[in-house]
Design brief:
The complex is a heterodimer.
Chain A (H helix, E strand, L loop, with lengths): L1 H14 L5 H32 L1 H8 L4 H26 L3 H31 L7 H4 L3 H36 L9 H25 L3
Helix pairs in contact in A: 2-3, 2-7, 2-8, 3-7, 4-5, 4-8, 5-7, 7-8
Chain B lengths: L22 H23 L5 H21 L7 H28 L1
Helix pairs in contact in B: 1-2
Classes of the chains: A mainly alpha, B mainly alpha.
Chain lengths: ~210, ~110
């Protein structure tokens, strides 16, 4: 008897499988708002210290490689494009093409991290790290600049890692046909996260690299 | 250009339907974003003095608007979502202004 009831319930659930894509998207955006305020706090700190130490920020910014930062900007913008193209491809029912675009995104994401590794590595090599010999000789403003530089690009880098994991998970679900041309909201959500990380970089790049 | 991808599945308004731009529009937006990046780097080389920061921030904001509207599909999205995003940005701007009130009058 109770077995019959259970199967009946399962059948009903299968027929009226409830899926709320709009709710899913809204949930993702609400999470993104908390991310905006998380980075927003750091941008406030940046604005305050740049206001207090305008000269030192210009001097310290000279240590950064504009070319490297520019390359990383192009890499992230392109990876954002490939995510969107991956969504379009899935919506058009082209699973293989969608996965190819997302692989390119993963490749660019990793390339971004490799560049960051070399950038940070070069600074460490020059003694610019907490308690490092070069950093200790700097003025208060320059020390603030590098503190903010490491925290903000570091937190951003961490978001790249999380974004890559999210995209990897979604790719696996596309491969398994869990996500399809009619059920793609989770891919969109992964894309939203990736684009937010891109937007944060769009602001980090001029604020840290392009001060003269 | 096929921008609509309707399906026959039962849809009570909660299931997402695709009404986003195709490949071409997104590639154009990307080209625009790369151009703005080139412009912001080029402008940084010119000595604009105190205007430099404002120009850099305006270009970054324009780039973000492109990403939010096209890549994040907000342009094609529900009005409620736009209001939410507006409130989020407004909160940040208010806090930014209050912070600068503190900074300018305290020191």
């Amino acid at each position: 008897m109770s077995n019959n009831v259970n199967t009946a319930v399962e059948e009903v659930q299968e027929i009226h499988m409830h899926r709320d894509d709009f709710g899913s998207k809204m949930g993702m955006w609400l999470f993104l708002f908390t991310e905006v305020l998380l980075f927003g706090g750091l941008f406030l700190l940046y604005a305050s210290y740049r206001y207090i130490y305008p000269e030192a920020f210009i001097v310290a910014s000279g240590e950064l490689d504009v070319f490297m930062g520019g390359v990383n900007t192009v890499i992230l913008l392109t990876s954002s494009l490939t995510v969107v193209l991956g969504i379009v491809a899935l919506q058009k029912g082209n699973k293989r093409l969608s996965l190819s675009f997302l692989w390119i995104t993963v490749f660019f994401g990793l390339l971004f991290l490799v560049n960051k590794y070399f950038e940070w590595g070069a600074k460490f090599h020059h003694g610019i790290y907490p308690k490092g010999p070069a950093l200790q000789d700097m003025s208060d403003g320059e020390i603030m600049y590098f503190g903010l530089y490491y925290v903000m690009t570091g937190l951003h880098g961490l978001h790249i890692v999380v974004g890559l994991a999210f995209i990897g998970f979604v790719m696996w679900q596309i491969k398994k046909d869990v996500l399809t041309a009619t059920n793609f909201q989770r891919l969109e959500n992964a894309g939203l996260y990736w684009h937010l990380v891109d937007i944060i970089w769009i602001f980090l790049f001029p604020l840290f690299y392009l001060i003269h | 250009m096929d921008t609509n991808n309707h399906h026959d599945e039962h849809n009570d308004g909660h299931i997402a339907e695709a009404h986003h731009p195709s490949y071409g529009v997104n590639i154009l937006v990307w080209i625009g974003l790369l151009s703005l990046t080139a412009i912001t780097v080029a402008i940084a080389g010119i000595n604009l003095g105190s205007l430099a920061l404002a120009v850099a921030l305006i270009i970054a904001t324009v780039k973000s608007l492109f990403v939010v509207n096209f890549f994040m599909h907000v342009k094609f999205d529900n009005k409620l979502l736009k209001i939410f995003i507006g409130i989020c940005i407004l909160v940040f701007v208010i806090v930014l202004i209050l912070t600068f009130f503190d900074l300018t009058f305290r020191f």
